[in-house]
Structure formats: structure tokens, C-alpha cells
Design brief:
- The complex is a heterodimer.
- By secondary structure, chain A is mainly alpha-helical.
- Chain A is built from nine helices and two strands, in the order ααββααααααα.
- Chain B has a single domain (about 5-100), classed as STAS domain (Transcription Regulator spoIIAA).
- Chain B is built from three helices and five strands, in the order ββαβαβαβ.
- Chain B has helices spanning about 25-40, 55-70, 80-90, and strands spanning about 1-5, 10-20, 40-55, 75-80, 100.
- A five-stranded mixed β-sheet of chain B has the order 1-2-3-4-5.
- In chain B, α1 packs parallel to α2.
- Classes of the chains: A mainly alpha, B alpha/beta.
- At the A-B interface, α3 and α5 of A face α1, α2 and α3 of B.
Amino acid sequence: MQLFGSPPKAVAAQQRTTSNPMMVQSRQSCDDGEVADLLRRLLALSSVQRRTLVSLVNEIQIASTHMETSVEQLSNQFRNVAEATREQSTAINQLAKSVGKVEIEGENVELADFASSIGHSLSDLIEKIVQLSSRGVSMVYALDDVLLELKSVEDSVGKIGAINELTNLLALNAKIEAARCGEAGRGFSVVADELRSLSKSVNVLAPAIKKQIDSISGGLRKSYSLLREIATLDMSEENLQANLRIRKMMAALVEQNGQLASALETNAAATEKITNQVAAAVVSMQFQDRTKQRLENVNTVLGVLSTAIETMGSEAVASGAVDRVDGDVDEAWLNQVIGQCTLGEMRARFVKGIMGDGPSGSHGSELPAPVTATADADDGVELF
Amino acid sequence: MQVEKRTNDTSLEIKFSGNLSFSDHSAFRSLLSDVSRDGVRSCVFDLSGLTSIDSAGLGMFMIARDEAAKNGWKLTIKSPKGRVKSLFDIARFDKLLAIEA
């Protein structure tokens, strides 16, 4: 009786009216009819107990199988998660390694080296520019010297002109003196004519030379302005600032990249941790195996109890105390057992298990309501 | 470009001010030949007053270096400031010339 807590009211009432005098009587003299009645009722209760035990064994098996399937599914899912996070960890590690590098013409270069090489290249470039400018200025100096030389050549040509004027004058005088000498000076007159003719030729030549010198000077002055263009490169504030900005930008890029790499490394470590945790969870899932074994043991024990109850019933029949093992199943006990069952699906199985092979009565329509409001047919919800 | 010369026994100090550019090439050249002609052993170019410079101006300091080597005097650059100093740094002049802060 203790199995089911307090007995139903009907039974309790009966006990109050009948058991006390009976107990007194049994101590004094035993009425065979009352003992047989008690035995029948005890057997009826045993019958409910046995059927309940069988149903419980069945439920435990269902629960164990359900757990086994679910745990296997969970283990597989966890294994998949572990595999995925392992791949993720590898990918992130690779990313962390490659993030600090740039590929230039098939060669991997550290970003920091790349940045400093840009700085070097910039300095190299400016060094070259300065060298070029210095050569340009040197050439300007050389040109200055050439122009100076040309100026002195120009002066010399001017002097030649002056000398030529005198030569011409001298030839004219010689011509006059030769005419004064008459026939004797005839030959001398011819020489004077030749001299004047030569002087005229020089007179034509000198301006030509002067013109050529002017042309050369013009050409040189043109080169001079070209050299000025080459040697003079704007080193204005903007250009300088741009150079400095490039350096700062590269430094910032390297810095940011370092942060990114370290964040990725942290991420990879975290992912690895997740992988390990999930693997550990899969190992923990082995509790199912142990629980299954325990439930099997419980089932065996319950089976033994059930058999013992059946044996006791048979012995009672054999002794002739009662005429059949499955006396009338006590409806109040049944309702009590089924009423405690809040899972709709499980309740249905209980009803079938306890009443199905018992005497078919009018119980079907009088099944007690579940004790809690959550008891409903939707087992999916009840699982939680 | 404006220059201001100060001489003592063995060395000559020339203080530059304003802007050094291509147009100063003649003045710079005669300045160099003056230094070589004076026969000083050492010459200091004080650039603290120089506010800007172009590539030709930078090139002129290279010519000054060659001129000093050719004529046997020592050239020292003193106190480049601001933008001029930045350019000296970028062009790595410290490897080519003796530069004092």
C-alpha cells in the first residue's frame, strides 16, 4: 500500500469501518471468510503491481533506447562540429601567417620589409635626383665657361676687323705711292691691288664668323635653359609632405597588420579550445553506455519482482485460499496509478498494458484526468 | 640666397639665408672659387637661416663637396632646419657630407 501513497478514499473508508474489528478478531479468532476476502484484495493489488511493473520495464526500455539514439546523434553532431572547428582553426592559422606578407613577383615579402624598402626606394630616388641636379649645375658651369670663351673669340674677331681696316688703308696708300713712281711703280701697284682684294675678303669673313659665334652662343643658351629644367626639381612643401605621408601610411599599415595577425592568432587559439571542448563533450557522452547498463539491471530486478508476485498468486490459488490469481482489478488503484502518469503517450501505453490483458471493464470511459495541467498528448513539448 | 662670411685664423664660416635655387648657381660658384682661392683649411656652411631649397640647390652642395675635395679644404654643414633638414634626411646627405646639428 505504501507504494501508492495514501489509499483511495473508498478503500480508506472501508478500512475504517471494517479493519479495526477484524484486527481485533484476528488476534483472537480468525474468520476464514474475511481472510479469504483480504487475500483476494491483496492479490488484486498484486495484479495491478505486476502489470505496472511490466509497463515500467517497457517504459524504461523505451527511454533507454531513445536516449541511446539521441546520444548517438548528439555525438555525431559534436564530432562534426569538432571537425569543422578544427578546419576553421587551420584556416585561421594560415591566414594569420599570410596576413603579414605581400607577394611581389612570386616572392613573399614581409610587409614591414616592404614598407621599409619603399622608404629606401624613396631615398634612393631623391639621391638620384640630387646627383642629376648636381651634374646639371656642373654642366651649367661648363657652359658658362664656354660662353666666356666665345665672348673672347668675338672680341678677337672684332680686333681682326680693326686690323683689316688699317690693312685696307695701308694698301690704298701703297697704291698712291706706286702711281707717283710712274712706270717704275707699276708692279708695286698690282701688289697693292691684291692686298686690297685680300682685305675685302677678310672684311666679308669677319661678320660671317661673328654671325656663327652668335648662332653657337644662342644654341648654348638654349641648352642652358634645358639644363635649368633638368636640374631644378620642385622640392616644395607638398611633395615633401607627400613623402612623409607615404612613410607614415606604410608604418600605420604595418602596425594595423600586426594587430590583425594577433587578433587572428587569438581567434585560432579560441577555435582550438572549442575543438578540444567539443571533443571532451563527445567523450562525456559515454555516460549513456553506463546509464544503459544500470537501467538494464533495474529492469532485471523489476522482472524478478514481477515474477515473484506472479508466483505468490499461483501459490495462493494452489493452496485453495482463492479461486483465481487475477481477482477483480481494483479500479481505485488503477486510477491512482494511471492518474500519476502525466505524459500522454506513456499514459496510453500504461492503460493498454495494465488493462489490455485484464478483464475488460468499463474503465475506458472513466479514465482519470492527468494530475498536472502540462499532461497533454503532445510529447514533443513534454520532453522539455 | 644671401650669404654672410665670417673668417678667423684657420676657418671660414658662411651663413646662408633665404632660398637656395637654380638661379643662385653663379653666386654659389663664385663663392666656392673664393673659398678655394683664399686657401682656408676648413669651411663651415651655416644653414640655420636657409628656409627652402630645390634639387639644384641640393646639387650645389654636392658640387661644393667635390670642390672641397679637389682643393683640399674641409666642408662642414651646420644646423639645417625644418624643410631643408627633412630633405637632407630623405636624400641621406649625412652619408655624403659632414653635418652638425
